[in-house]
Structure prediction request, 398 residues.
Amino acid sequence: MSLTVSNSWNPLGSESVQSRVATRPAKLGDKWKEYQGSNNWEGLLDPLDDDLRSEILRYGEFVEAAYHCFEFDTSSPDYATCRHSRNSMMSQCGLGGSGYRMTRNLRATCGVRLPRWIERAPRWVSTQSSWIGYVAVCNDREEIARLGRRDVVISYRGTATCLEWIENLRATLTCLHGHMGPKDGSPMVESGFLSLYTSQTATCPSLRDTVKEEVKRILQSYSDEPLSITIVGHSLGAALATLTAYDITTTFDNPPLVTVVSFGGPRVGNRSFRSQLDKSGTKILRIVNSDDLITKVPGFVIDNNDMADGKPVQVAGLPSWLQKHVEDTRWVYADVGRELRLSSRESPYLSKGNIATCHDLKTYLHLINGFVSSKCPFRATAKRVLERRHEEEQLQFK
Prediction:
């Protein structure tokens, strides 16, 4: 789910992600699990730890690469594919020095039954399967030493094709495979996201099967060393990252630490789904721009105070007489993971009120680089805050 497919806009002009990182990459060593969320990022988010900031921006580069490599040109015979070969992709998208090697292309398939007339429409309208991202494995000894483990990245872009938009609009909750329905407290997720994750064609396996096959291969190849799986995505890609994490942690026995870094993601599932994610050990850092509408859809929101299963559902903004009815609907969602909340309004460099800009991935990376803490939400204001404190201290001495 993405309001823009263009990556030409940048709130900091031509500045690259690498130049936005405020500090040089630190050696994480034995603390790498903390930065991957083993303690739910306690003490690292407010104020934002500089080493964690660098890691988030670094993972943002992998998502930018997924956009950069996608063929957006609808007139091209290669529309909706990856513009580069597997061997050259990382270098072509600016990640040649990252220490990672791309190991698998990933495709998502729309599961909506299309009308017959669609066959006469332009190819870009009816493209059912499209390149959605990739898997990359860190294979550089120095980077492995810095990270404290071998890291596997699964990266997803946001919405780009016509049929992906159609799937986004299928916003009612549906049961995960093997579960019954809303009344038995089963985990449920957004219908369109699950369709893109599990649908397949005669020539294209599902995203789910492709990811599981590649993860199985990687786990077998590196079973004798510390390993992490980091799943990153923006918008629709953030939703698919959450589904992928759930699938990995519930499919494989004794999986490594699985972490999701989610940029501008919509809601994905109900509170039972959230509970299952928590029980599986999946760690999710959900980065939200308060001014981004996509993070507020779809469906209703579970009240933030309702964190435990078995409690009555409290839907924000609804009167009590509607609560029972709401419990039985397929529109009650719950936010997942640990939230890092930012705001476009705090940046002096961003135009206010631009919906597309608020959702753009580059906006998120810009805000992450500038964020200090909830008391000082943007680096550009830090000097003014310090000056004000100094003035207050001077007044106290007088």
